[in-house]
Fold this protein.
Amino acid sequence: MLLQSVGISSVSFAGFFIFSLQSNQLRVTFRVTGEAICALPLGTMQVAIADKKLKRTLESDRERQKRFGSEMAKKIHLRVNALTAAESLGDFWPPFSPTERCHELKADLDGYFSMDLVHPYRLLFKALDNRSKTTGQLELELLDQKQRWESIKSIVITRIEDTHG
């Protein structure tokens, strides 16, 4: 099966079949009525969560919906799954990637990365295994930014907040 050859274990869809006869040939069409649910392969990115309350919220559908509402709960679930399925943070390069819009923060939140959720909220996390921006400008100038992002294979999700206000 093609899906298994790329490491995806299973896919399930909600939908219905349409059968029609055209030129003495049976034509079968499957219409998707809901979301496709795909079991993504686990990447090598290590994703930790900063505290027990946030961990409980992020790992439980019910807690996510209760705390953030249905739409944001779905976005949080998608972002955490995307991070878990990634090989490294380099999978979200270039910054301002289309759907996640992953980018590095500055000023008071220097050293944090951000992913879009429902405006204006962001999923904030820090790299655990790379050189932070404050460990020496000379070292950072030697590393290409893309290489630095690709070297980040371990993160800790710290919070969800509006970083603009």
